[in-house]
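re: ur question from yesterday

yeah so i grabbed the chain u mentioned. its 476 aa long if i counted rite. heres the sequnce exactly as i have it in my notes:
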Amino acid sequence: MTVVVMMITLIEFHDFAKPVTKRTSVRNDISKLFDDNPTSNQNRSTNSKHVTRNKTIDHYDNANVLNLNKIEPLKVSVDFIQPWIKKCVKTSSANMFKGLEPDVDEFVDDMAFPADAAEHFLEVLEKTKPYRKWPVHGYAGYKGPWIENHWINLLKRPDYVQALHSNPKDLRRWLHETFGRTIPLFVQWTDMASRSGMGIFSKNCAKDGWNMTKRGCMAHKTMTEVLRPEVTYSTVVQHDCGLLGAWCSAVGPGTKIPGKTRKFLKNIFVFSAGGYGHIPIPLIRSTMPVLNASMYKKGSERKYGIGYLGSPSGHAPWRFRSTLKIAVENWAKESGKKYFYNFVDGDWMATMADCKLNLSPRGYGRASFHTYESIQLGLQPVHMFNEDNWIPYKNSPNDHILAFKHNGQTALPQQLQDLANNMSDEELATREATLRRLKDTHYTYNGTINQVLHYLRAGPTVSDLRCDVVPETIRG
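ran it thru and got these structure tokens back, copy pasting raw so excuse formatting
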């Protein structure tokens, strides 16, 4: 899953939080946490042929530490978490809270925004600083930055820097308004997991017998020391296994999450690209331009009724892609239509444009990069899943990703066959035009981060993101 001395470009967002105008010297130490000059690291490699390492993108200056002793505690009452976040946790977390005390209803009733939210946020920001200095991982030719890096770089936005310099009362109000009364966690979860197996729950830490003095356990140690069980945190995670990170590669895909692990994770509200969290977001690998207008043919003029450009076996569990290929072959025999199901050595975009429907089977995790590659090119994807349909914007006004379940059957779902056989040229053209219109607002890094901030601030009435069920197994 690498930055050649690469600077992350500042992302331009709409102003979701009111600028904080009052500044005091109390937060002057904050400015020392920022360093725009990346430090160099040697490139590293792993056993995976797809994974390369980049040099570090340095968000913070290690030499300077925020003096928390300067901060006077703020005497205000505790607020409850925004109702849409409480509702999401309550409706999505049955698997998370199974066998735990308190149960989900009691936990949700007690979800609160602490009186010392400003002080606690700055403490968390300081203690997690080492986990924002990791080399950005590379995967399949793309060297980042990824969605988590864009989330972290919100901290460089002028209005965020201004808020961090403000007094405790203003900083608390800013957190209150911007993050839904949660404490945001800015951590390179996936960059850590892809290098040396580090993370909150890492395979290296497990091998060390959860010895908190070992390097692989340091992130877990930090989180257990700084996070409070009564406070709700929010974060963005790319990894296929969410916050479980590299630990999931040490167990089978159908493994259920142990109660001890779930107890630690239950108060972290996760926007997940890979497939384990509360709210699905797009799993993006870079941003591609839409195709040239001349490449969009009528559906009836495209060579293939169904196509999939990628590994016919891949890393998906349960021989998912292999059995799906058999079902596609059987559909082609019965319908007399052509299909494509493999890698392409040449112009793969032209081949995708020649497919009426582009299948996007799940990968190692519940999601797939290919779904969002199709959308960015302006083509209609069909997400294929086996257990949990992990796609964003479901049941929203902008729910336009087709998705079907496949569990090793020798035939494609009948509805998918009907679409491949009978979808009119007009319907396909309308669908693809809609996806092209939504690309920038919903399926790019900037658009995704905006949707996350919209949800935290105002919920599903403003954001098209929707709550989903936290899965019972580690990656389906």
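noticed a couple things. The first strand starts at residue 51 and ends at 56. also The radius of gyration is 23 Å.
anyway ttyl
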